[in-house]
Amino acid sequence: MKGNTRFLDLIDKLQSGYRMNAEECAFLLEFKESSLEASVTRAVADAMARAKFDNKGLVFGQIGFEIAPCPGDCQFCSFAEDYTGFQPFNMSDEAILEAARGFAADGKLFSLSLMAMHHYDFNRVLDVVRLVRQNIPAKTNIIVNIGDFNATQASELKAAGADGAYHVIRLREGKDTKLDPKNRERTLEAIKGAGLDLYYCCEPVGPEHTPAEMAAQIMHGIQFGCFQNGAMRRVCLPSSPLSKYGHISDLRLAQI
């Protein structure tokens, strides 16, 4: 293959177990998604993942057991109070159990995520974790996807039966959101300090985000020793202030 020499050298090193730094990650993301280099990046990543995990994947589920207009007002979120069309809603214990048991019925579910809003009733979250833990197989991990919490609360979540937490300092946190990145960081530290698995993600990616921004976020999760890292594109909500930017393609998401 003829192409960028630096790119080819880096791809060779990565296949030999080399862990790239943020600058090298940004370099790979500078190529257009339709380029030869991006195609090679996707193909090599796919082959490496299939080899590492024996061509197998993991099955995940998620239950959003409560919703409400959110004062965090993230400009990419369908629950932002400034433009949401959703009304408050809370699932009953019976409905949560029915959903949880349905997800776990065939015994193949690896993790079940329990999601609330950024502002939430912590005792209610604990009750839901305990309820679900008692009614699904022990081998199925329970992940909480909630707003910020402290070290004591992280330990309580673990004691209640949670195995991990999904938590991210999102792209342009504090600018496209009303949330404090420092509080998000403290929650990441609490998650790791309590011995919970950290589920991280480069998100929510839009066309305006630079390779350097994405690389920094990807590496931040790795520096925290995340159990899982991924990428998620921003859904283009017509009512969102960020809708003017549109959304990235499937190819670009796969490249990231």
Keywords:
single chain, 256 residues, alpha/beta, 5-stranded parallel sheet, two-stranded antiparallel sheet, 9 helices, 9 strands, 40% helix, globular
Question: What does this entry look like structurally?
Answer:
With 256 residues, this protein is of the alpha/beta class. Helices cover 40% and strands 14% of the residues. It is built from 9 helices and 9 strands. It has helices spanning 5-15, 22-29, 36-52, 93-104, 122-133, 151-160, 181-193, 211-223, 250-255; strands at 59-64, 66-67, 89-90, 109-115, 141-145, 164-166, 197-199, 202-205, 231-233. The strands form 3 sheets. A 5-stranded parallel sheet has the order 1-4-5-6-7, covered by helices on one side. α5 links the parallel β4 (109-115) and β5 (141-145). α5 (122-133) packs parallel to α6 and α6 (151-160) crosses α7. It is globular and about 60 Å long. The two termini are 22 Å apart. The relative contact order is 0.13.
Q: Strands of the biggest beta sheet: in what spatial order?
A: 1-4-5-6-7
- The helix fraction, in percent, is 25-40%
Query: What kind of sheet is the major sheet?
Result: 5 strands, parallel
Terminal CA distance reads 22 Å
Which of globular, elongated, flat, extended, rod-shaped describes the shape? globular
Structural class: alpha/beta
Work out the helix count. Answer: 9
Taking all Cα atoms into account, the compactness measure Rg is 19 Å
Count all strands and give the number: 9
**Uncertain spans:** none
Overall average residue pLDDT: 96
In N-to-C order, the SSE pattern is HHHEEEHEHEHEHEEHEH
Oligomer: single chain
Question: In what range is the share of β-strand residues?
Answer: 5-15%
